[in-house]
Amino acid sequence: MEQKVTKKAQKTQLKTLKSLQRFLLKHGDAVTTRRFSPVRPELRERLDEALLAFRVARDVTPAEDTKSWLRAVRQATGVPVYVMADRLGVTKHEIFRLEKSEWESRIVVANLRRAAAALGCELVYALVPQKGTLAELAAAEKDAQEEARAAIREEVEASKVKTAAWVGLRRAALLEMRRTLRREGMRAQ
Predict the structure, then answer these.
(1) What backbone torsions phi and psi does residue 17 show, to the nearest 5 degrees?
(2) Where in the chain is the domain with CATH 1.10.260.40?
(3) Could you read off the pLDDT of 19-46 as tens digits, one per residue?
(4) pLDDT tens digits for range 88-98
(5) Are 98 and 110 contacting, i.e. CB atoms less than 8 angstroms apart?
(6) pTM exceeds 0.70 for this model
(7) How far apart are CA 119 and CA 146, in angstroms?
(8) Integer Cα distance of 123 and 125 in angstroms
(9) Which of 1, 37, 57, 131 has the largest CB neighbor count within 10 A?
């Protein structure tokens, strides 16, 4: 089932495609998007080296019965709840809430940092790629951007063909109209 497109929608679409076409013709392959930061290979290499330990530790989890890193470290170091509560200046109930919020992934980083300090630890966190390295992620992102640009170029080329066909039909229609008017004895003034 074909969708009926209004003339106004066609004109708007044609204007959009023409402006995109002009932009691509003017800027060519120098087109970049603002969504993405510039690629910094030296930073990526440094981060990949630093993240190696985190990628190795990714599969390490606290014991199943604790479910929380805070609780696991507190129990492993032998710090009772009331001592940790005293160090943080809160009640015992707040320590259990803190451990639960960490287990439920809704803890505030500042609170986690304070709790780590109360346990004599330092909070260290990182963003680790789900698969591979940052270099592989950057390559995949670059490929995705190139595919998007290629799709835009194909769309522009398709619109050129449609526009050329439309212009050709319009010319043919005008010529036919002139011929018909001349046959009828009318002339353009």
Answers:
(1) -65, -40
(2) 59-127
(3) 666 666 666 555 554 555 566 778 888 8
(4) 999 999 999 99
(5) no
(6) no
(7) 49
(8) 7
(9) 57
